[in-house]
Amino acid sequence: AQSVSQHNHHVILSEAASLELGCNYSYGGTVNLFWYVQYPGQHLQLLLKYFSGDPLVKGIKGFEAEFIKSKFSFNLRKPSVQWSDTAEYFCAVDNSGNTGKLIFGQGTTLQVKP
Amino acid sequence: DSGVTQTPKHLITATGQRVTLRCSPRSGDLSVYWYQQSLDQGLQFLIQYYNGEERAKGNILERFSAQQFPDLHSELNLSSLELGDSALYFCATLTRGSDGYTFGSGTRLTVV
Q1: CB burial class (10 A; 0-12, 13-18, 19+) of residue A7?
Q2: What is the β-pairing status of strands B107-111 and B10-13?
Q3: Taking Cα atoms as reference points, which of A39, A84, A77 lies closest to residue A58?
């Protein structure tokens, strides 16, 4: 069965620190990859997505992610986090050859200290 | 506002009861996906509808059912509720060729 694994469950950083959240998926076929952010009490918002093309994708709010097909990974990065980045982050995979439903990772809670 | 509307935002009910959650997709979006977000299970896909027809089922209990109406809004029915059904229920729509999935704000269900 397809699965998505996020390595970090809870990350605490100081402002201006660099961020990298790991995401690995298990599916050998064509996939679309997403990172979503969920601020406290709010709905999931798309940070960035990868469908095809350049494996380094840039999203909103200075986030970027790199798709490494050989490693089945799609890690999220940000060079300098801000207090407002405190949220929960979800990696997700869409098996585009199937129904298109999203398989989510367990989520990573990011806490940025001012 | 994502354009995907879910009602109600909050729901508190007793064990054994039945509730209906509603999702209205954005204009032109034919697919509706339902997800459950709980502390122990994380975000899990429940069921998908496309233009009124069920397309896929995930980890949906038999006590739960859904449907999509001709105007494309969808309802998720949860019956014989248990404490463990307390969760945030999201619906999402899929617009191919754009940003992909758009999520509603969710319905927080508390079973007491």
Answers
A1: middle
A2: parallel
A3: A77
Q: How far apart are CA A91 and CA B101, in angstroms?
A: 13
Quick check: B34 and B23 in contact, CB under 8 A?
A: yes
DSSP secondary structure of B1-19:
--S-EEE-SEEEE-TT--E
Q: Mark yes or no for CB contact A101/B100 under 8 Å.
A: no
Q: Which of A44, A94, A106 minimises the CB distance to B103?
A: A44
pLDDT in tens, B49-72: 999 999 888 889 999 999 999 999
Per-residue pLDDT tens digits for B72-86? 999 999 999 999 999
- Closest partner residue to B33 (CB to CB) among A43, A101, A107 is A101
**Amino acid at the residue B68:** Q
Question: Average per-residue pLDDT in chain A?
Answer: 91
Instruction: Answer for the pair A88, A11: CB distance below 8 angstroms, yes or no.
Output: no
| A43–B104 C-beta distance less than 8 A | yes
Whether the Cβ atoms of residue B14 and residue B80 lie closer than 8 Å to each other: no
**Sign, Cα dihedral of B54, B43, A17, A73:** negative
Q: Report the DSSP pairing between strands A32-38 and A87-94.
A: antiparallel
